[in-house]
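Action item from last meeting closed. Structure (316 res):
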């Protein structure tokens, strides 16, 4: 599972993955379904009214995508794009649960935008609005497929925002101590560019944290995975590592470095980085969100969450 948010907490995604919430302390004993619900709450926001990740000085949120291993050659650089993201958990429309907006701020698709509107009624499909600046057109469609990838990455819309606990069955396999460092995309000097010179190093500070080990099996037929196993922080419900399996083989792993946001509740966190790698071909993606780009409970007017904002973004 990953925020927006995985980006609307990055990009539509990034914002979905930017904040985590839930105030109540975890009960002494929890089953798989209860843990899955807590993770969903924690990784999709709710405690904060809204959240923003926007360029701050020289720092921007960035997504880096690399082609499969067989297609790489010396000197071939990854595709790198920066983006701003916004999450609104208190929309003016009472039927909506949230609105998530992401806009690319660099690259060939600069100024392209994606806005995702999620309804409180889970029987209603989400609505996605795309702004295509090259064509000067909007495209409004019903909920994208859960396995559609976000901005050419290895992260899907299901992982970012659309997948809910009821889309899977959940089994608590046990409790352990997380004893690994979270890996990152390792770039050679030839692969680095303007926005990738200061990418994060592997993160080891979560070592020693007690975690739940949760197995989640999809209810979708003929799906790209059969189940995934996740390691989840027992206090914050931060999901550090998820490994997907198909026919008993690993197909994808996702690693997330959740960091606190200086709030009393430990569940209010954000994904400093998300690293996703396909085991089938080696294609990988990394989202990096500097702390300086993030602000919570920003006072944004209702009219901000419209197509006009997407069309004029970066021109005002």
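Sequence:
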């Amino acid at each position: 599972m990953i925020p927006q948010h995985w980006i609307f907490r990055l990009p539509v995604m990034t914002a979905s993955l930017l904040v985590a919430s839930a105030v109540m302390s975890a009960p002494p004993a929890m089953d798989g379904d209860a843990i899955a619900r807590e993770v969903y709450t924690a990784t999709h926001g709710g405690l904060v009214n809204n959240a923003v990740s926007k360029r701050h000085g020289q720092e921007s949120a960035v997504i880096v995508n690399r082609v499969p291993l067989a297609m790489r050659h010396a000197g071939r650089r990854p595709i790198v794009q920066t983006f701003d993201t916004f999450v609104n958990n208190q929309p003016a429309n009472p039927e909506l649960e949230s609105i998530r907006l992401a806009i690319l701020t660099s690259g060939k698709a600069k100024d392209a935008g994606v806005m995702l509107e999620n309804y409180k009624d889970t029987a209603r499909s989400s609505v996605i609005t795309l702004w295509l600046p090259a064509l000067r057109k909007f495209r409004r469609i019903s909920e994208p497929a859960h396995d559609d990838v976000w901005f050419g990455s290895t992260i899907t819309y299901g992982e970012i925002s659309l997948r809910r606990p009821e889309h899977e069955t959940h089994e608590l396999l046990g409790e352990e101590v997380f004893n690994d460092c979270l890996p990152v995309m390792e770039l050679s000097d030839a692969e680095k560019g303007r926005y990738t010179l200061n990418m994060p190093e592997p993160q080891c500070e979560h070592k020693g944290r007690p975690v739940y080990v949760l197995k989640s099996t999809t209810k979708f037929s003929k799906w790209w995975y059969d189940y995934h196993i996740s390691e989840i922080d027992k206090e914050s419900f931060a999901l550090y590592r998820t490994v997907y399996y198909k026919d008993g083989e690993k197909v994808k792993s996702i690693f997330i470095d959740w960091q606190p946001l200086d709030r009393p509740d430990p569940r209010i966190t954000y994904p400093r980085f998300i690293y996703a790698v396909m085991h089938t071909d080696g294609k990988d993606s990394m989202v990096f969100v500097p702390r300086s780009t993030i602000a919570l409970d920003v006072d944004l007017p209702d009219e901000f969450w419209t197509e006009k904002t997407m069309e004029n973004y970066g021109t005002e």
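Note appended to the action item: The first strand starts at residue 8 and ends at 9.
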